[in-house]
Amino acid sequence: MAAPDRIVLLNDFSRAEGGAGYLATTLAAGLSARGLRVTFIAGDTIEQGLPEGVEPVAIGGHALLDGPARSAALRGLDNRTAAAAVGRWISENDTPGTVYHLHNWSNIFSPSVFDALAPVRDRLVIHAHDFFLACPNGAYLDFQRDEICGRTPLSTGCIAVNCDKRSYSHKLWRAARQGVLQRKLRPHLPFARFVTIHEATVPLLRRAITPAHMHVIRNPVTAFASPVPAPEAQRRFVHIGRIQKLKGVFEIAAAGERLGLRIDFFGGGEDLDEMVRRHPSHAYHGWTDRDTIGKAMQTVRAVIVGTKSPEPFCLAAFEAAATGLPLILSDAILAAPELAGTGAAIMFRAGDADALAAVIGRVRDDDALVARLARAARDTRESLGHGLPDWIEAHLRLYTQLARPAGRHTDTQVARAAG
User: Fold this and answer.
1) Which of 117, 115, 161 lies closest to 135, judged by CA?
2) Ranges for the Glycosyl transferase family domain (predicted)?
3) Are 208 and 134 in contact (CB under 8 A)?
4) Which residue range is the domain that position 55 belongs to?
5) 185 and 125, same structural domain?
6) Would residue 116 count as lying in a domain?
7) Do 265 and 163 have their domain in common?
8) Contact predicate 300/236, CB 8 Å
């Protein structure tokens, strides 16, 4: 089978921030480097540019929280402008050998993007970086109770409970959006290829959707730097990732303060200002490039990941382990038992600052423990996930299955001919 003649990646944001943004832009760069024609349709304005050789298409939209509440609520349900732009690009450029790959859609594109992609649904890959395809708040987390949610999405029990981090009215809006999504997603379920990033996510997604084709492609694990030779000789504790309540950052900050430790937070997010105000004794570095993080890792004793929801993969944890660093992980992370099983991580009860402080205290005081954890991380780094070349190859194999021979017409080509 021949490779696709074009791969179109779609993502809300063009920035390499957060898991999905980093992975979408990394995939674009890797495919382009192999000589493939790559187009990146971004919901935003693409102010920072894209990897070399990637054709940019900017929708020019904005994140939901960046606009007035009323218009944002309407755009979040149905961003007709973005959907029309995507549909227009497809009608003007689609070929039998073009494959489409949708990453995040919930912040700009809205569920309406699935209408725009319907004519190419048999050449479409839909990536589940999180649980927004299934759960109204995207996390299977009751934010009000700080509890993992076991309810069936959009069931009576789901709709009745106020699980939203803001308000019950916002929960009802999320439920409405999920209803719209399920309706627009239904035509795709028999045809599109759904990709998830860890085996443990499959049953959680299937609580709400039942795709005919679901594939697991684990995220690429790339070390931040060469393995840290002796973390037991270092003193710094760090968090890498978004600064938001969902990630357990307030518990990390509180635990550090109880122990008199300054935690280094690498990342930005919606709760950064509140974190700085409530916990000013810690160091906040904002979004930081990988080279800078790699240099910082050389003076780190352990990496803390406090996620309170069933996070599918937690790329930062795997990459820290690949850098030879001990991990302190919440037990909500789906891959936490796997990482703890390698001997590279210690788990604590998600959302429990006291339990976290106890584990951090052990790691702070026990050099031999840190040395054992670090040795296990170094010994298992090659088996933690795909290397970047293998990850790109896994996607390319999937794309090749979907690209049609040049002689077969697509729905969009038939429509253009009829017009």
Assistant:
1) 161
2) 229-379
3) yes
4) 6-220+387-418
5) yes
6) yes
7) no
8) yes
Longest dimension (CA), the chain: 74
| Confidence band, pLDDT 50/70/90 cuts, at residue 108 | very high
Task: Tell which residue, 19, 18, 12, 72, has the closest CA to residue 44.
Answer: 12
Pair 338, 397: CB distance under 8 Å: no
Q: Are 53 and 32 in contact (CB under 8 A)?
A: yes
* Number of domains within the chain: 2
pLDDT at 414: 39
Residue 176 lies in a domain: yes
Between the CA of residue 405 and those of 62, 119, 241, what are the distances in Å? 37, 17, 42
Residues 64 and 116 both lie in one domain:
yes
- How far is 146 from 397, CA to CA, in rounded Å? 40
Query: Using CA atoms, how far apart are residues 222 and 400, in angstroms rounded to an integer?
Result: 25
Task: Evaluate whether residue 225 is within a structural domain.
Answer: no
Whole-number average pLDDT of the chain: 93
Do 158 and 247 have their domain in common?
Answer: no
Per the CB < 8 A criterion, the answer to whether 159 and 175 are in contact is yes
- Report the distance separating Cα 178 and Cα 135, nearest Å: 7
Average pLDDT value for residue range 223-243? 95
pLDDT tens-digit readout, 283-331: 999 999 999 999 999 999 999 999 999 998 888 999 999 999 999 999 9
Q: Is residue 1 part of a domain?
A: no
Asked if 149 and 208 touch (Cβ cutoff 8 Å), the reply is: no
Q: What share of the chain is helix, strand, coil (3-state, %, to 5)?
A: 45, 15, 40
Same domain, 147 and 240: no
Question: 128 and 10 share a domain?
Answer: yes
